[in-house]
Amino acid sequence: MSKAEALSNLLEWGFQNGVILPENIEFLHDEIKGIHCICTGTVARPTMTLPSSLIISGQLAKNVFHNETEDNTWLKFLFAKLKYDTEATVDDENIDLKIKFKPYIDALPKRIDSVLVWNPEELETLLGGTNLGNSHREKLYSIFKEWYELLKKQPPSSPFFDLNKVETDLLIFENWNETSYDIIYEKLITDTINQTPTIWYSFSGFLWSHLIFISRAFPEYIVNKNCEESAVILLPIIDLMNHHYSSKVSWSSNEEGAFIYQNQMVLEKGDELLNNYGAKGNEELLASYGFVLEDNAFDLVMLRIKLPLPLIEEILINDDGYDIHLPTMEEYTTFAFDQEEKKQDKNATKKTPMDYQDGIIYIINRNNVDVCLRPLIQIFTYLSKTPMESLEDLRPTLEGLEKLRVAIQQKMAPLEREIATANLDPHRYNCATTYRNGQINVLSSASSELKRKEKELMSKNKRNLITVSKISKYDPTFIEVELPNMIPRRLQGTDIEFDSTFDIFVIWIILKIRNNSLPDKYNWVHAQYDTCSTSISLSELQVNDAHAFYNHYFNGIDTVPFEEVERSFKFVVNNSFNTVTSEETILVRQL
Domains of the chain: which residue ranges? Predict the structure, then answer.
């Protein structure tokens, strides 16, 4: 059956079963856009109505499997059964749902482009180093686990499931960590792509159903206010329309439980009638739908930061009075039409460290970079501060900005590599390229904004910052007299080579404190040195670095004890920050 015939059969089926479509619209199919809806004339606020009898919901699964709950997993199994089972699927009213929904299933896309079914070469070449590539195995495992856990709960006498027939699938799940993606792709994914599962309740069949739902499902609460918040439904014919985030639409229901779509605009001949699934970046579009949008205004980058659970507990307890926001994934999860009350209930739930065992999720959106960066700057400042500092202090703020910029540049690096195009699917290559470029744009904007903030802060506080160039300019005695005098007579006349500006600062502090010779404009350094807390200890690695520093610069200089070097070393560590681009240490005044 051709795609055009399948589309025609679906529309005729809809008309016969009470679907109401507006005048002056036409569903078409071509190889580029697939099925889409075009206006054949002017149409104002076009409305589509799908009767409740054609809505595929959890209640249908309950009517077939007699499961206790109407959760989405049972619904996915039902849909796989309608697609692949060779026998009838009869509900409580003795209706064969397989026959009833055949026109809808026949019209579904034959090609699947979700990242979840890309082959190993495509994943590595096109998505290596990206969020999608890095999370692919975890997401696939999550779906596999959903399938596995439901099947393993079924009794041996189940009239629907014989686990012996999916033994290979069960073994792959049970040996997941030892099984390569090449094997998973060969044994399971190819049957999903080819739509040839060994049996309808195999993982390949379930995965196909899952992919249909993540690309076509609607929230059930539009037609059933008493459903679970996460419950979804399928809407034949309504789901034929393409998505665009700028399309102004409303979804509603009537007393009979029908689903009503209405476009809020006046459309002209040739315009495409579109739906709107909400603000979705290309990462979500590619993962769930298998396509991307050029110049997507809702492109975003997800940053996952893993911290030790005791540190997270410290932040949550809020002993220091800091209001640090640690977002969870649920805060970013919305439907196209949000339920404000439910969202507020979620946000009111008290968080625990276990909510962040997989990391803290931060999202940067291309249209709101400054606002998105604020909680990130806050947490990086917190991680940079010493016990004697606060989030408002200059030094940890500057160090936090630098560390965050490093993290963002590291995130961006794998996205910028060249991609070889040989033997790659053109559509997937183009999608991946658009996705990667969007990620780069968001991260570049974030890096530029951080650089701007740092430059502004340093300019405002230039009198409170000391660089090596300032030492050269305002303290010639250090270069011309004190450094040469520090060198043993047997080595005088040789050049001193410093490994870093950090090393120069440590030696500068040692000599300035010893000789009480700080320039007047830098007298604050002496006061800050005297008040530097002795309770702050160096890490084991830093102590080793201090010993290496001492052996490198003070070997044979008995007049400078290690304890003096260690204290100056610790002072510079805790009163400076390092810049990314110039690898320069800058000493910061405490205000």
Answer: 1-55+235-278, 64-234, 282-460, 464-588
State the amino acid at position 559 in one-letter form.
Answer: T
Query: In this structure, what token pair is assigned to residue 61?
Result: 């699964």
Between CA 515 and CA 420 the distance in angstroms is: 62
Instruction: Give the count of beta carbons closer than 10 Å to the beta carbon of residue 254.
Output: 12
Distance of alpha carbon 515 from alpha carbon 517, whole angstroms: 5
| 554 secondary structure, DSSP code | S
Backbone angles phi, psi at 253, to 5 degrees: -140, 160
Residue 463: count of CB within 10 angstroms of its CB: 9
What does each C-alpha distance from 279 to 289, 338, 510 come to in angstroms? Answer: 14, 12, 57
Q: What is the separation, in whole angstroms, between the first and last Cα of the chain? A: 76
Q: Which residue has the tokens 């110039």?
A: 582
| Geometric angle at alpha carbon 439, from 309 and 218, rounded to 5° | 80
Q: pLDDT per residue over 426-470, tens digit each? A: 999 999 999 999 999 999 999 999 999 999 999 999 999 999 999
Read off the tokens for 240: 């034929």
Q: Give 316's DSSP letter.
A: H
Ranking 219-228, 311-320, 352-361, 547-556 by mean pLDDT, the lowest is 311-320
Q: Scan for tokens 């195999």, then name that residue.
A: 202
**What is the spatial distance between Cα 509 and Cα 585, in angstroms, rounded to a whole number?**
13
- Bridge partners of 50, per DSSP, are 259
pTM summary value: 0.85
Helix, strand, or coil here: 300? strand
Fold type of domain 282-460: set domain protein methyltransferase, domain 2 (3.90.1420)
3-state helix, strand, coil in the chain (%, to 5): 55, 10, 35
Residue 326 carries which side chain, given as an amino acid letter? L
Count CB neighbours of 256 within 10 A: 11
Q: Quick check: helix, strand or coil at residue 233?
A: strand
CATH class label, 1-55+235-278: mainly beta
- Which backbone phi and psi does 475 adopt, to 5 degrees? -135, 65
Contact 351, 317 (CB under 8 A): no
The amino acid that residue 510 corresponds to is: I
Q: What are the φ/ψ torsions at residue 34 (nearest 5 degrees)? A: 70, -150
Kindly report, residue by residue over 329-340, the tens digit of the pLDDT: 766 654 433 433
